[in-house]
Amino acid sequence: MGAIVVARSLRRHGTTRSIVVMVTPNVSQRARLGLEGLFDKVIVVDVMDSEDQLRLSMLRRPELGITFTKLHCWTLTQYSKCVFLDADTLVLCNVDELFDRDELSAAPDPGWPDCFNSGVFVFRPCLHTHARLLEHALQHGSFDGGDQGLLNTFFSSWSEADISKHLPFIYNLTTSSTYTYLPAFKQFGHNAKIVHFLGVMKPWSSQGRTESSQSQNMGRFLTLWWNEYRAQKNCQPPASEGEPPHKFEKTQQVQREGAKSLFSKKLEISDLLLTQSSVQMEEMHSMTEPKDKEEEVKVQEGSKGEEEHHGEMHTTQLTSSEGDFHPEEVKGPSQFLPLSHTPVNSPVDEDMSPSRGSKDIQDSPLITEGLDNSQTKTRVSEADRVREELQRRQLWEAGQADYMGRDAFKNIKKMLDCFLE
Ligand SMILES: O=c1ccn([C@@H]2O[C@H](COP(=O)(O)OP(=O)(O)O[C@H]3O[C@H](CO)[C@@H](O)[C@H](O)[C@H]3O)[C@@H](O)[C@H]2O)c(=O)[nH]1
Ligand SMILES: [Mn+2]
């Protein structure tokens, strides 16, 4: 879903460069066909995993080991220069000027601004660099277990050597900036060129609940993301079904029909996902609905550049560790909780321990029809609990922690102690 949005948003803003996606072999044929309708090229690469579980667990993101797969981008030597975009980015305007930069250009990471964030970066494919990167990985590993730690120690002069390699933050505006530095976000946020939904909560996993100060800020980007995703549904199908793959149909009304039926439908996106009630789907719809005309995304007629490659491209990566992605089965904002990602680093108290929050539910099947009443109740209440945790995390991330209650210092300390042990 992320990769689709990246491609669509690049095209919407008239990129003249080729758009390429790297996928791993476990991405289904069907999903690849969907991607082929949008990307100039779908390139299959092997999974590379740092398998550095210790460091990744420090980051609380064990799933990020496979981001080593990104390193394959240096093998795309049919292109002379590329811009890598994470699959959780959304392009807000034409950013082709990024190709004026040189390797390795990237924006600061908001968590440690002397490191660059590896969700958006300019690089030059080169087999020699690729080999050196792998060698570096073997010798030194990655200090955070993911590609970002590795790339930062490899391109270690980034923070000091050449200011032209520092991309402005607006090329990689991470969503956390709304609560880490809200006044700056208010002052400069409207200049954003690429939004990056960094962190455990992704647009496709969010419930779209943005009641806090985030609602006017990130909620807007979330709306744009969903509009872009839904617009896409009307502009394929893939080449094999007759339609020119890159011809977009004019204007798309946001599709609403069908969303309610999601509840009883077993979706195959991942067995880590849990459907939610149709009532909440309705809520989600109203949250993501454009609030005013300005926010409405208009789909312009456009076509993929016919020119041959200019030796440059945008690239993004998609891997899927679980099951197939069937775009056509998703009718609107998804109502899924990414259980593997659930309450990672929000403060924990007795009732909210990660084991209760994720493991139990991970083990339970999807909510489906045909369960007897008591079973249904148990599972629904489990779903409620996970939902509650997710809401709590969102409030926490929006700077609205319940400091007097469950997010009290003693609970935070307990979690830190547990983490440090
Ligand atoms: O199952 C997965 C997981 C990741 N990815 C790709 O890898 C990227 C990075 O993962 P993401 O969840 O976006 O990581 P972030 O939350 O952005 O975390 C940070 O840390 C990661 C690990 O170092 C870096 O890759 C990111 O660029 C950096 O922003 C994704 O966008 C995808 O392109 C997949 O394709 N499939
Ligand atoms: Mn990312």
UniProtKB/TrEMBL annotation:
One Pfam short name: Glyco_transf_8
GO BP: any one term: glycogen biosynthetic process
Compartments reported by the entry: Cytoplasm
Lineage: superkingdom: Eukaryota
Region (Disordered): 235-257, 281-385
GO cellular component terms listed in the entry, alphabetical order: cytoplasm
Gene3D superfamilies named in the record: Spore Coat Polysaccharide Biosynthesis Protein SpsA, Chain A (3.90.550.10)
EC number, UniProt record: 2.4.1.186
Broadest EC class assigned to this enzyme: transferase
Basic and acidic residues compositional bias, start-end: 282-313
Catalytic activity: [1,4-alpha-D-glucosyl](n)-L-tyrosyl-[glycogenin] + UDP-alpha-D-glucose = [1,4-alpha-D-glucosyl](n+1)-L-tyrosyl-[glycogenin] + UDP + H(+); L-tyrosyl-[glycogenin] + UDP-alpha-D-glucose = alpha-D-glucosyl-L-tyrosyl-[glycogenin] + UDP + H(+)
Predominant cellular place of this UniProt entry's protein: cytoplasm
Gene Ontology MF term list: glycogenin glucosyltransferase activity; metal ion binding
Recorded metabolic or biological pathway in which this protein acts: Glycan biosynthesis; glycogen biosynthesis
Known cofactor(s): Mn(2+)
Keywords assigned by UniProt, alphabetized: Cytoplasm, Glycogen biosynthesis, Glycoprotein, Manganese, Metal-binding, Transferase
UniProt record similarity statement: Belongs to the glycosyltransferase 8 family. Glycogenin subfamily.
Function description: Self-glucosylating initiator of glycogen synthesis. It catalyzes the formation of a short alpha (1,4)-glucosyl chain covalently attached via a glucose 1-O-tyrosyl linkage to internal tyrosine residues and these chains act as primers for the elongation reaction catalyzed by glycogen synthase.
UniProt name for this protein: glycogenin glucosyltransferase
Species name: Cynoglossus semilaevis
